[in-house]
Amino acid sequence: MGFLTGLFWFVVVIAGCMAAGWLFRTIAIAVTPKGVKKELRTAPLTASFGMLMIIIYIFVAIFAPLIAPFPERMVVGPEYMPWDQVHLLGTDNLGRDMLSRLIFGARNTVGIAFATTALAFLIGSILGLLAATVGGWLDQVLSRAVDVLMAIPALIFSLLLLTIFGTSVITLILVIAVIDSTRVFRLARSVALNIVVMDYIEAAKLRGEGLWRLITREILPNAMAPLVAEFGLRFCFVFLAISALSFLGLGLQPPMADWGSMVKENATLIAFGDITPLLPAVAIALLTVSVNFVVDWQLHRASGLKE
Amino acid sequence: MTEQNNGKPVLLTMKGLRIEGRSDETWSEIVHGIDLTLHKGEVLGLIGESGAGKSTVGLAAMGFTRDGCRISGGEIVFDGIDLMKASEATKRDLRGKRIAYVAQSAAASFNPAHKLMDQYCEAPVQHGVMGRNEAESDAVDLYRRMQLPEPDVIGFRYPHQVSGGQLQRAMTAMAMACRPDLIIFDEPTTALDVTTQIEVLAAIRNIVEQFDTAAIYITHDLAVVAQMADRIKVLLKGDEVEEADTRSMLSAPKEDYTKSLWAVRSHARAEQPPVAADKTPVVSVKNITAGYGAVDVLMNVNFDIHERRTVAVVGESGSGKSTTARVITGLLPPRQGEILFDGKVLPPDYRRRTRDQLRQAQMIYQMADTALNPKLRIRELIGRPAQMYLGLQGKALTDRIRNLLDLIELEPDDYIDRLPAELSGGQKQRIGIARALAAEPKFIICDEVTSALDQLVAEGILKLLDKLQTEFDLAYMFITHDLATVKAIADEVVVMKEGRVVEQGPKSEMFQPPHDPYTELLLSSVPEMDPDWLTDLLRERESG
Amino acid sequence: MSHIWSMIAKRLALGLLTLFIVSLLIFGATELLPGDFAEEFLGQAATPETVAAIRRELGLDLPMHTRYIEWLTGVLQGDFGNSLSNRRPVIELISTRLGNTLFLALYAAAIAVPLSLMLGILAALFRNSFFDRFSNASALTSISFPEFFVAYILIFWLAGRGGMFPSMASFRGDPSMAEMLYRTFLPALTLTLVVTAHMMRMTRAAIINLLASPYIEMARLKGMKPMRVIVKHALPNALAPIINVIALNLAYLITGVVVVEVVFVFPGLGQLMVDSVAARDMPVVQAVALIFAAAYVLLNLTADVLATLSNPRLVHRR
Fold this sequence. Notes:
The complex is a heterotrimer. By secondary structure, chain A is mainly α. Helix content of chain A is about 75%, strand content about 0%. Chain A starts with a helix and ends with a helix. Chain C is built from 14 helices and no strands. In chain C, helix 1 packs across helix 4 (about 65-75).
């Protein structure tokens, strides 16, 4: 019987999500300008739902202090209080308000993951485009260096570096950005390599265009679609990596509210059949699923695959 | 099905065939009601330009549509079987067994992961026509009939180990494996060089006659279809223009469109007076030897190009004609020799050339699709050289762009802010020309600029280039494999083979005997509109 | 055929070279630290004596290249030095745990690889059907889940009140094979769920990418059945990307193991590494990182060789 009720709720939740996605798409199509409208019409329900969720997350992250009922680090009651009127989701292992920490977690976890991804992209795509355009020894040196860095599994490498540099927010961002930039480099380089062989690049070179203009006007506009999709995917990876590190107790450090460590801190409750500790994990999963849905739609559009 | 033609029963009929294609989530009709009747043992030629729907109709004869297409109306009956109502299983049973298909590019249509023999045997074995051993010995027999070299062992090679012309013959043999009643040939020789094309055409015709197989022969090349077909049907944008037996179609086409197709090859550049002996050529290619890695692709190449003159560089794939262009533009510095421009030596590497040297020599590419940055608008595409080399800004620049669009006969207001994707193939090529003109050069390299275009569109491009040459005193180097194009536009001809110049001289001399043996082979291999041409040529070559 | 062996030999040599550079990197990483590792490690407890002791322990008083050569010769003989936290030889800590981790990874791989290949082929065959859309959406979803989330859901669902499976995957003594498989079922299932989705999606994509090829159309026009078109004509040409994705995911199992081991309190290398990172126990971290990296390099190497062998254009030259 438990299985059937589970299935029932599962179906209800999925249907609710799809309805929300549909509603969002309908409203969005109504209020946006013409060019965007045409794009939005091609969005499947999964992607519409994804966009809606991403907007909600951004909103929560920006206005966290206004939305959260209690401050991030304040002890407001006894430990592990159940859900009630005041503390909607109860309290955590130190007696802090769970809902407030969940809301501030959006700001910390998402913000840091975003900053890290942006940095990784800045490093990786600039070097990748440069390597593909200039070629020769520069390409050889950079590619071999990246090969070696990629020969160490990302999580293991970050654990090694964190052992050495210690765990502060800045080192966390730098370490993960550097490790992830190798993956961005690979993609940016291979995308650019496919563009560099085009006749219009040859024409631009023969015209005497400089390196800067070659990259910004001729290559980058054509590499944008895969790079943007990759940004979404990378964001998910970084976000999951930081959460995993925090879960292992090696990422964002207490008392900062962070979804990964919140799961770890309250994990004991799960064995007692309380799902509260899983809520931060749900928050993580929901965002990555949403981003993936949107990226999947965009990739599908870019590839023009009808199948 | 009692209708008779020379005593032969009807094999295939199509009535009012309509096919729709999907683009941007909407369906639009691409074939608007085609009727077709084919008798046993008969060869029907389907001709038309790109977008005529000839491949689509050919595939429909197998009850097959490509992804994104669907048959929306009409009827297709093959030997009493209604293909519109037949189940997938019934149609699968026909395909490969009673109706076979020969694709345009054999290199792409053979599965790279399997040996030729395995692919040959697949249809007969899977359809239960014969056992594996019988199929193998049958394959060797057919390979021999198709005049493939080493017929006993060639089947045990992978596709990448066999040349293009041989693959095309192996594919025809594969289509014959179950001795089908009907074969669809979809442009089987378009991707081949002219000298190879002859061999493949002869082999195909031979085997179709031997087994008395009916065929639909799809092509855009009139001269080719004249050799192969008993009847010809002309298509235009999914509609039938006319149909007649080959001889009457060639001698007396009824419709204007057909007549215009027949007349295409009439454009010829006026004879130019000889160049004064003491005049300095615009470009001089002097003793060039060049190559990639350790391999020499060009050996001791020499020729001159004068102002207001067009030099056509002719050769088959691998002859080194495009490499010559790369050496002149400085993309491939030569091992030996030098390039002179107005009598002065150019630096071998383009990166060492001055901006003015780069400006003076421009290039137009074969594939306009890859030659124009898809993300830039026409304004920037052709404005950039004017801005960069001539320092034009603001209104002066816009005026220049509009002026250039006028020159290439595109309405400025309509086209200036378009993206390349919003242009047709011929229009893209015109933008390529405008981009070259924008630099105000003295010399333009045209690399196979018309070979990706339909005949009528290509004709327009050639006329435009001719007009611009007179107007701006341009020197052209025209790279092509197509001798008809050479006749149309060249003043002088350079014939290349395997990296060497085998013959060069004024056009009038080139098309008169005596020739170098290779030039002779090249000239004689170009199909002519005469239905007896192939037969005569083969007889001649056999006796000579 | 000789060229193919020389190609493989070259790839092997490259793999060894990579491993060598990786070892340099893992060892040299300590040098990146501004200041002194010993002082950093001890923090508040740093006295001149303890700092000197640690420095001797790590050989920090010797020049770098000497230390590296000593460390590497030690490693090659199976000597990774002593742990800083409990003074025991690192090799002792590692040996049994390595076996456990490998067992878990292989367990998961044995389920995940055949399962994902099968699902991927089916999804390609029935593309755009409900089955395809459903499996695609669930694959995307499970890729997006953090491993610990999947693990806890499984615990909540299969180990909680009903208790079909144990939530702790630790075992004492010398359990039988069946007992091991039973006790480690949940962690193995977690890992399977995490990697299957990606492998399945990529298998599907690798096959579908080829379906527009002229040779696939040719196979259809020869009247071949859809299953045969996919398995005989598309799959052999999709092998290289599929092999690479499998290698990538097996390698990912190694990293994924770390989190899963922590959730299930499984006595493996990952658990050891996390504890050692928290304690900043450098010799242990180095040793475990080197083992993980070696496994990773080896997997990629195998994948490259297999992908080469699967391509007739490389095996049979003109």
